[in-house]
Amino acid sequence: MRYETIIGLEVHAQLLTDSKIFCGCSTRFGEGPNSNTCPVCLGMPGVLPVLNRKVVELTIKAALAANCQIVRYSQFSRKNYFYPDLPKGYQISQYELPIARGGYIELEMDHGQSKKKIDLNRIHMEEDAGKLLHELDGVPADHSYVDFNRTGVPLIEIVSEPHINTPEEAGEYLRILRSMLQYLEVCDGNMEQGSFRCDANISLRPKGAPVLGTKVEIKNMNSFRNVMRALEYETGRQSSLLESGEKILQETRLWDVNQGITESMRSKEEAHDYRYFPDPDLVPLVIDDAWIDEIRSTLPELPREKKERFVKEYALPEYDAAILTATRQLADYFEECVRLGPQPKVVSNWIMGDILRHVPDTRDISQFPVTPSHLAEMLLMVDKGTISGKIAKIVFEEMVASGRMPQFIVAEKGLVQVSDEGALEKAIQEVLNANADQVEQYRQGKEKVFGFLVGQVMKATKGKANPQVVNELLKKMLAG
Amino acid sequence: MTKALSQMTIHELHELLKKRAVSSREITQAVYQRIDAVEPRVHAYITLTRETALKQAAAADEKTKQGTIQPLTGIPLAIKDLLCTAGIRTTCGSKILEQFIPPYNATVISRLKEQRAVLVGKTNMDEFAMGSSTETSYFGPTANPWDLERVPGGSSGGSAAAVAADECIAALGTDTGGSIRQPAACCGIVGMKPTYGRVSRFGLIAFASSLDQIGPMTKDVTDTALLMNYISGHDPRDSTAVNREVPDYTRALIPDAKGLRLGVPREYFGASGIDPEVEKAVWEALRILERQGATLTEITLPHTEYAVAAYYLIAPAEASSNLARYDGVKYGYRHPKETDLRDMYEITRAEGFGAEVKRRIMLGTYALSAGYYDAYYRKASQVRTLIRQDFEEAFKACDLIVTPTAPTPPFRQGEKLNNPLQMYLSDIFTIPANLAGLPGISIPCGLSSRGLPIGLQIIGNLFEEEKIIHGAYCLEQNSDWHLTKPSLA
Q1: A75, A277, A283, best to mutate vs chain B, most B CBs in 10 Å
Q2: What's the ipTM?
């Protein structure tokens, strides 16, 4: 039988605020255990949460960008369960009245050949839990330890409708969502540090069947690739169970990255009853239109719009535009450089070739020693013939190493391209004299030798010779 | 006969302190002498802070000398042991917090400290404020100073008994379903539950967050007005504390009742379980107010009969969540033996909580469970809305609603301890105000034939504490029940 895969994703994104959602503690990552804590985020007796306004602002930003409706009257609820990393015994989240509903993320599959809208169910705000440590200084301990630094760090949960049908679509959905949140400066999207996490619900049904099959929740996938692998695996597991007439159990399964399989974590019967109810410590959140409009006016150009503009405005291939707009920082770098004069396609080639080799995470491109103006200056020197394209490669590596301006490097190292015919004639003559055999071969019709002779001239001039002038002169001198 | 210092009120002592006729040190010492004399019989306190109190008194005297005396400066106050006091253990009457010393002050404590009030000690209470008799305390029951065989009411029974027995000048309590007003009635003192949101709850160890409110427990209405002036107001640390100007409540101390329209709810009188002596005393008080210019109107609060049921779903539901943090992981009691996580939780909580707390945690957990939420918690929330609407409607026809505070005078210790339903009905008249968020006061209005105090409750509209104080002050000025003291023989 042919099966259809139905996937829904739940993404938890950590918001880029300086302080936690309900207290003033820092959200900085990697500090000493329990150093970013206070009575409020430790859930001490008698303390009360107070909502961080910035959290709401960033959430509205994300919700507007994802085309959601902002709910004017929303509410925080308590999700009750016991675990040592949850100091109050409940997590403050949103349940019946989340801050945003609806919305969608548009996917472009097959290199932009087909588009598909993935509807969103909701976006809601919640606090993160702490972290358990089972070893101390790398040594397994006989006790577990709790680090509450992450407790109360603000998250948004973005819940999609079950409209995703393949692992590839899931991957594309996550890439587009992450890029959008990064553009908005709402989330840094770092999966390894856990600031962008994803759980998946997946079920299979016979193609065309009207009802959904039994769903399985998969957790513990810490990269896009693992999300796709886990969904691939789970599709196979479920379809072979169905093929052999067995039933799918409703359960939560964990992705085991080493074995490349999912394993049962808990069944439906063992699932928690979270006993959600409105949190009486927080008043309902009322959002007025003026605030929404104010936030809307601060929305930056989003990846899709930017990409389309790059194609139109800079006459770039779709492929280039997609890479250049992958992060806001890289797009800004490109535009900053182009603004100073060089040809957009040339800038794009340099970025995609040489620069990306040096910059693994383009969000850090502002730290890259070669600034857009340095790159522009160098490319304009090539354009004017001051240096050759080959020399430019040398200048570029020097800029990467030293961060100095190209004109200084060129001047200091004497890298200015030689176009002066007198000087070049002299160099060519020397090459001709030294390679009498090859000259003879050329004259007998072996034209391939021409390339060799050009190479010898470039070598003799340490690459500084203007290759075009060399070509012309060499041809003339061989003929003469 | 002149009054002993410990018998005086805040305003009387303030006059003496201002004139430098007496020092805070002398007052504080007098209070501790009284404590030494009667505390073994009353057991109003869980923790006494004698040393720091005497230091605070000395510091207050220093301030007074410098001429910066404020109305509460140097006045020895008792604090219910669920208000966090930095550096002083705060137990909530529970084994699970027996050794808990908070590193922060509740907002009300900070405000009293700004006034340079003196903290006498932390008063006894029903465990986690769950009870109406102060018998569920892990630290043993408190006796009613009027009759040591009887309960002082609860859950703020320690505060009420301490005020009645002159073991402090005034006290703070908290009221979730009547926990200030009912013990005030049982002990013959004044106790006010302000409007929900009037006083910051920061540092109040929560029982039921949507109902809890801190309030004064005093020897007369003037002292209540004074304490209200200093504990009320907005607090950036409590989102539910309303940002609204705090009036000078002492301006409402008006001795006549001219223009006050008093509503007498049909449902609160003649009900089964109400002691005729209580009803008689309340009616006599109503006549006094009428003579002072008030008009009486019969009103109806039709959903009153569902209030207790709704309360015993909402309050335990919130409590089941609020008390989840006492899990042995971070602070408080933990079962000492090495166990796995699940056993650690279960044994710690089984040993750390008393029977009533466990009963309510189970009730609340059940009411919020999947499949039961709509029938219990949601339905109770809907009833709560109806009760609120009853009051909205009633206040169109009157300024204040007058009722008995409790259906009976204080009962005997042990009488209701094993009958939770009977115990829960002690709060039948006080619970509706909590559900509606309304302010209410209990003031003494008579003694039963056995010589036990009877309290009268006045409920006002939201943020209309001034009208309540007005009505209560008028009754107090035209009767002398507040001057009658237990003999503590």
Answers
A1: A277
A2: 0.96
Please give the tally of structural domains in chain A: 3
Q: Which residue range(s) make up the domain with A347?
A: 303-413
Q: Is B200 a catalytic residue?
A: no
Is there a contact between B123 and B46 (Cβ–Cβ < 8 Å)? yes
Quick check: helix, strand or coil at residue A13? Answer: strand
Position A194: which residue type?
A: G
- Closest chain B CA to residue A280: B210
Tens digit of pLDDT for each residue in B34-49? 999 999 999 999 999 9
**What CATH number labels B5-255?**
3.90.1300.10
Annotation marks residue B155 as catalytic? yes
| B209:A281 CB<8 A | yes
Shared domain check, A425 and A395 = no
Q: How does strand A261-267 pair with strand A251-256?
A: antiparallel
Among the listed residues B25, B105, B118, the one whose alpha carbon sits nearest the alpha carbon of residue B73: B118
**Which CATH number characterizes residue A472's domain?**
1.10.10.410
Q: How far is A282 from chain B (nearest CA, A)?
A: 6
Domain end, chosen from A259, A294, A329, is at A294
- Nearest Cβ partner for A90 among B321, B369, B373: B321
The partner residue sitting opposite B321, judged by closest CB among A44, A48, A80, is A80
- For residues A339 and A457, state if they share a domain: no
Q: Are residues A91 and A112 in the same domain?
A: yes
Q: In whole angstroms, what is the distance from residue A15 CA to residue A13 CA?
A: 6
Contact at CB, A45 and B97, closer than 8 angstroms: yes
Residues A110 and A128 in one domain: yes
Quick: pLDDT tens for A91-126: 999 999 999 999 999 998 877 678 899 999 999 999
The residue type found at A455 is G
